[in-house]
Amino acid sequence: MQGTQLTVSGLNEYVRRSLAGDPMLHHVYLRGEISNFKQHVSGHWYFSLKDESARIACVLFRQHNLSVKFVPRDGMQVVLFGSIGLYTASGSYQFYGEGMRKDGVGELYERYLQLKENLTKEGLFDPARKRVLPLLPRTIGIVTSQTGAVLHDIKTVVQRRNQSIPLLLRPAQVQGEGAAQDLTNALNELAKVPQVDVIIIGRGGGSMEDLWAFNEEVLVRAVAACPVPVISAVGHETDVTLCDFAADVRAATPSAAAELTAPDARQLQEQVSRMGYMLAASANSRIQSLLNNLNNYSARLKRNDPRLKVEGMLHEVKHLQLQLRVSASQRMDEWNKKLETCSIRLQNASPIATLKRGYALVMDGQRVVKSSQNAPETMRLVFHDGQVTVQKQQG
Hints:
Blueprint (H helix, E strand, L loop, with lengths): L7 H13 L7 E12 L5 E6 L4 E6 L1 H4 L11 E11 L4 E11 L1 H19 L16 E6 L4 H13 L5 E5 L7 H13 L4 E8 L13 H9 L4 E5 L7 H5 L2 E2 L3 H8 L3 H39 L2 H44 L1 H6 L4 E4 L2 E2 L9 E6 L2 E6 L4
Parallel strand pairs: 3-5, 6-7, 6-8, 8-9, 9-10
Antiparallel strand pairs: 1-2, 1-4, 2-3, 4-5, 11-12, 11-13, 13-14
Helix pairs in contact: 4-8, 5-6
């Protein structure tokens, strides 16, 4: 295999010279939208210019951008004057600008920024105003062109995810003079339909001029004031309109908007089944817990049943009565024995018992005569079984 052998540096240098030698690539006016704008500390401007289908890297060195009367911003439509060349270090070609002016749409962008700033200060885009989308809307309202791909995309997604949700279209003009007012009227009309729980407003992609109706103040205010939650699905993912800021939710595409409004029926059924299972399990657990508590309370109630307490107390009373009887009987026996002992001792110690043993009492009237010296002439001898009168002997 034969051919020219080159180094990478040599190849890049050859392409650079080729581009530099092509007169078609010099003194070019390039129209596009600024993207990824960066201002380097050196003063150079680095950015991209893009249109609907392509983009190119651009640079405007400090010595050239000093003559530009404005500082570019992302989204501006400009006309860049310069030439195309190759940056050999990376092997990438780019546009080397020498001058820049705003394009006609750039004026629209200025209006866009000014209105956005005013409405932001007014609080129209405040996140606190955003509402949550309904989980399962009764009807989805749609504001878009009747003939565009937006309607087809929304229908396809909703039919695939949940066929039970009806769609209500209010066709509207989405571009050109009178479009903003027609879109506003359509939005207000759908908001008055009782079954409509959410509204999708949108159109396909395009230039800022094509999408300008969705930046008109009348429509932006209508979106913010709509009593029904609104999803904005305007343009492609990189397109941002003021309606996107005013809406409750911004969707990157109409299909994404449809997915946000139409929950997947199968997922809902699975979720309901899971929740039903969890509810049944929770209910069974709660019932079992209550039954356990009931059993515990029942056992405690039985232990504290007044009848059981009364029966226990009666049993205790009977036991005490028995103990009292036994104790009383024992005490009576003890007392009887003591009484018998005392009686015997009393009998043994009594004068009668002494008299029975052969003794007698010498009585002088009611006085006991204890000595012969004191004995009277006549005395009574008291025996245990009677009395005898005796006379005192002399000598």
